[in-house]
Design a protein that fits this description.
This is Sugar ABC transporter substrate-binding protein. It comes from Haloarcula pellucida. This protein has 17 helices and ten strands. By secondary structure, it is mostly helical. It has two domains: 172 residues, Periplasmic binding protein-like II (D-Maltodextrin-Binding Protein, domain 2, 3-Layer(aba) Sandwich); 186 residues, D-Maltodextrin-Binding Protein, domain 2 (3-Layer(aba) Sandwich), CATH 3.40.190. The protein has a three-stranded antiparallel beta sheet with strand order 3-10-6. It has a three-stranded antiparallel beta sheet with strand order 8-7-9. It has a two-stranded parallel ribbon with strand order 1-2. Helix 8 runs parallel beside helix 10, helix 9 packs across helix 16 and helix 10 crosses helix 17.
Length: 380
Amino acid sequence: MVGGDGGAALDALFEGFSQRHPDVSMNDVADENLSLEVKSRILKESPPDVWMEWPGKNLKPYEDASVLGDVTAVWEDSDMEQYYLDGPREAATFDGTYRAVPLNIHRINNLFYDVRQAEELGLDPATIDSPRAFAEELRRIDAETDHTGMLFPMKNPWTVLQMWETVLLGEHGHETFRGVTDDAAAAHRRAIVDALDIVRQYAEVATEDKLYLSLTDANERFVDGESVFFHQGDWAAGAYTESAQFDYGTHWDHVPFPGTDGLYAMNMDAVIAANATDNPETVSTFLSYVGSADGQKRFNQKKGSIPPRTDVDTSAFTPFLQEQQTAFQQSTAQPLSITHGLGVRPDQLIELKTAMSSFVSSWDPEAVADEVVAALDTSA
């Protein structure tokens, strides 16, 4: 069972699988609301053999319900363990048992910038070394120039949540980030407040329509030259590569978000197997292909993402994605995104989005930090 997003990428994956295994038939069910459909079938005790889902803590309800299949043998009978880094492997396991096969990765902590505007302002984005220093630079741009420092869409609370988790990672480091997501949020409350305060500072110099600005509209306006910077996951670059007047390296470029150099904050999709299936050999064969270099090359080239395997030939990928793959391979850690469900449970994610909705109404870091701690720290 597959979702509606990335149809061309899934077609490429299935085509490659059919070429490798012409004797194996696979029936896929496309559904625009995949998660709801899977849950409905699980409740009816008729889950699909395999489906695509965010891994990590997003899978905790399935794990608690004993729905997930043990796919450890797929990992151990192949070379997957050798070519997956720790972050994707962590997202695929519960208590040492593999429950998923990650298929693609999107980087969260990108800071895109308009090359010509940065040069005009005498800016080298790579020298901005922390989220707080970035706030100071945005204030300087706002006070001393006629440029917009950074477009900041807030129409949907997830973009604010993503900004906050990126600032938390960049300002306070990976260890604190992990503590916040691993039931120790109360112990790191000051870091949570500080990150919220820095996000508030970004909002103060954002455009007046920020609360009504969608991600798509903001991204299009960045392409049109309306701001120096734009923070977003690497999926935003799809619009850049499609624009004939917005060339990589000439008109736009990117750096890791300030303070996050060497860290590769991840969103990803994975293929999940049900605990009960009438076709265990077929499922294992398909999962092995999903975890193969050939399968991941085919899928990610179409999806505009990078493979979690480190040995995939990306020479046919865009230069931007090739650089993303290099950064992934050289990263010292691969934090699991909060906003995209890998680093927190689904119920926590709902509460965090609610907290961010409160934040853009009050801009009160102290009060909203209490909501964040309550959502994340089970001992609070």
